[in-house]
Amino acid sequence: MTAIFATSGEIRNTGVVKNAETHLDAVPQHDGKTRRAVARLLLEQGPVTAAAVAEELGISPTAVRRHIDALLADGEAITRDAPRQTQRGRGRPAKLFLLTDAGRARFGHAYDDLAVAAIRFLAQTGGEEAVRAFARSRVDALVDRHRSAIVAQVTPAERAKALAAALTREGYASSARNVGVGEQLCQHHCPVAHVAAEFPQLCETETETFANLLGTHVQRLATIARGHAVCTTHIPNVQRIPDDGGEPA
Q: Which Gene3D superfamilies does UniProt cross-reference here (predicted)?
């Protein structure tokens, strides 16, 4: 939750104390920073309810809805109904909110049209393998900075959490949680989503690198590049096989 604490810090830097909701709601000049904090929560935890965002940021649900309504009006957020099985009692289902591609753009993209043009040229001159080689080089450079911290972990859950923390530091707003039969790694932001939409090799080589890094087969379930809200990777609960071919750790 490091990124969330950073968001709270961002609010505190404006002179607003968390939980002082009346002050936050009453000072219009802080609207821009508060709206960015709301948008970041939708990025990192979406789909999420307005009430959950209000609780996390320590401001009133009314203030949160005002900011979410503005994001909706600007095409930076969308809404969907919460699954029925999560509802208690009767009545209208709770609304969940998440960012659109336009909303994610608030937090920057690592590549632009120039990058797409460059990879197109690479594909035309070097073919499929040249694109894959570039993709492998890129993701290897990304994870190598964190490799020792990740491989030092023993269990799949610990390795997944270490990988999520590393990806968050690289701008992917990631989290990991247990889903019973394994760990689910979620990347709530993809700085290269626009490029990966045209060149899925970036997603494919990323998945291969995760498998090699974690020492187990992983399965990519969804990607932002393919129109999903989150990039989701399933990591099964199996122990790493030692390099010497001995018994599992």
A: Winged helix-like DNA-binding domain superfamily/Winged helix DNA-binding domain (1.10.10.10)
